[in-house]
Amino acid sequence: MGSKIRGKILLISTLSLIAILILSYLLIKTSYQNYLKTEMLKTSVTIAERVSLLVHELQKERGRTAGFLGSGGKTFLEELKEQRKKTDEKIAQLKEVLSRKNVQALPPKAQQFFVDLVNNQIPKLIEVRNAVDNLSIPLKQAIDFYTKLNNNLIDSIGLLSSEATDPEIARELLAYADFMYAKEKAGLERAILSVAFANNKFSSTQHFEKFVNLMAQQKAFLKAFQLAAPEKIYNYYLKNVASSPSYKAVQSYEKLALSKSTEGEFHVDPNLWFKTITEKINQMKKVEDYIAQDLVQKINHLIEKTKGKLTLVIVLAAASLVIILGFTFLTLREG
Length: 335
Hints:
Number of helices: 11
Distance between the termini: 5 Å
Order of helices and strands: HHHHHHHHHHH
Mean pLDDT: 87
Number of domains: 1
Low-confidence stretches: none
Number of strands: 0
Shape: elongated
Oligomer: single chain
């Protein structure tokens, strides 16, 4: 083989090698970035799941706190202590997943939100608890604190959904947040009608309007949930909540409260009402858990898919390099 031909082969091989190296770098970089994004999504889903667990315990702590303050500290003392322990467990679990590494993997907006949540919002819970123990905080102020904290926590899931890079995961995270809001409003309705049934009337027009507003908000959030949720998730809700005896019983109580809003005379055992709507809320919690489980399965599938693409790109790039180098070596050797 002449030196000119040998030179041309070397030139073509070198240029091909450079082109493949550049292309391989770009493809591997893109695939790796996609993999990192799916890992960030997994972190977001894990955080959302821990937030859901914490909100559920805070909702129960709010109810126990209301009972304790409403009785002037005479009842619910032990129950409140036990509930606080459960809440603290969920706070610890959320803080665990909100480690520096995981928070830094989130988009800047989400980072700022969760840093503020851990450093400023959650620590205020200790101050409120101390005030509750000393009976030095009005009932409304205590309830408002828990409600605001719960709303902020649920807002965080909405924020994660807006930052999610996968449309399907983002949509389901949004449905998750909408459903949690509906459940939060059901918890507030539980407290409102407990007072009304205990007094056998609504204490004021504002009290009744609050009840009506909570019903309307629940319907709005459930409608938003229906529009955003995958079909199998919404069907699970229909089967386990909307078709349950507790759901229908709650509707009967609501109709009674609406029909006798002016004169009162409900003649309803408030404890029975509390037990019935708590059963409904517990069924709603099962739906929350089902959504979380579905999200985890989807994100794990997405990660495996992204890993597979990254591995394939690396293998193809390596194979291309070996083929070109082998072809060049054999050609020059034969010459």
